[in-house]
Specification:
Strand order of the largest sheet: 1-2
Largest sheet: 2 strands, antiparallel
Strand content: under 5%
Order of helices and strands: HHEEHHHH
Shape: elongated
Distance between the termini: 153 Å
Number of helices: 6
Oligomer: single chain
Helix content: 55-70%
Length: 192
């Protein structure tokens, strides 16, 4: 009987309804298959030549770059001058000192050296990133304040020029009125 059940088709809804007085409603379950999630940051891709004569490298298939290819693609001058970038020096120093502090404390408190070194390296990276981002935030604020200050100075300069022009126009008008009053005060016979 077990062999018959293994090879037999499953019972239909009619067969179930005849054997039980209250048949259960047939349920259909949908199988959820999630779509693959793309990587957060795309990997750098390069084209690989297929070896056909006369074919341009740009026509070959794409493949991910290796770590060494990425390092070789970076300009050496940029790597040598990374300490001259804004906020980089302070971020490195903050990360190094924070990593040294946390790793040293972990080692003193009895953690194994590799574990303390891992804590030191992790702290160094996190402290460097946080310090760099905070420094960049402060620089953006400073640039915005400088733009506002320059704009304010230009507005004040225009306001001063407008006031000065208004004062000059007023003084010219007063001088003209004064000259007219003096001319009217002169007697017509004074010339005799």
């Amino acid at each position: 009987m077990a062999a018959d059940q293994l090879g037999a088709d499953p019972p239909s809804d009619q067969a179930l309804s005849t054997t039980s007085p209250n048949p259960a409603p047939s349920r259909k379950y949908e199988i959820f298959v999630p779509e693959p999630i793309p990587p957060a940051t795309p990997q750098p891709m390069i084209r690989e030549p297929t070896g056909k004569p006369g074919e341009d490298v740009a026509e070959g298939p794409l493949r991910p770059m290796t770590f060494l290819e990425v390092l070789r693609s970076l300009p050496l001058a940029e790597i040598r001058n990374v300490h001259r970038k804004p906020c980089a020096r302070d971020a490195f120093l903050t990360g190094i000192s924070g990593g040294f502090l946390v790793g040293g404390v972990r080692a003193i408190l009895g953690a194994p050296i590799p574990k303390a070194a891992n804590w030191a390296a992790g702290t160094m990276v996190i402290a460097s990133v946080v310090s760099h981002e905070y420094c960049q935030y402060r620089r953006r604020l400073e640039i915005e304040r400088m733009k506002y200050a320059v704009e304010l100075m230009e507005r004040k300069k225009l306001e001063r020029e407008r006031i000065k022009a208004a004062e000059e126009a007023e003084s010219r008008a007063r001088e003209a009125e004064l000259a007219e009053a003096q001319r009217k005060q002169q007697r017509w016979w004074s010339g005799w």
